[in-house]
Design goal:
The protein is mostly helical and 99 residues long. The chain has a domain of 51 residues. 45% of the residues lie in helices and 0% in strands. The longest helix is centred in the middle third of the chain and has 24 residues.
Length: 99
């Protein structure tokens, strides 16, 4: 089991500047960023050089961009079909949908 405790450092949407969050709290959590900390640990332990990590990050970014572009290019499904196979391929009743 893994327990992760983290703080959302971005707003609920692109238009949310999070002015309601104390800047000191944001700064504190910035220093605890797990991705940056893991990156630093890999470098400190000599597990991989910076250029290799940069290449991995670029590959991941490229794959995510490609996946997003493919998803956006997909045709919009017919309403009732939009929820088919979203969470499982096992047919389930949809009491939460509107008739």
């Amino acid at each position: 089991m893994v327990e992760l405790r983290y703080f959302r450092r971005l707003g609920h949407a692109q238009h949310d500047p999070q002015e309601y969050v104390d800047p000191a709290l944001m700064a504190e959590w910035e220093t605890r960023d797990p991705i940056k900390r893991f990156h630093a640990r890999i470098l400190d332990r000599g597990s991989a050089p910076e250029d290799e990590l940069r290449a991995i990050r670029q590959e991941v970014d490229d794959k995510c961009k490609y996946a997003a572009e493919r998803a956006i290019a997909e045709p919009v499904p017919h309403g009732p079909e939009a929820v088919d196979d979203v969470y499982t391929d096992v047919p389930m009743p949809r009491p939460w949908t509107r008739a």
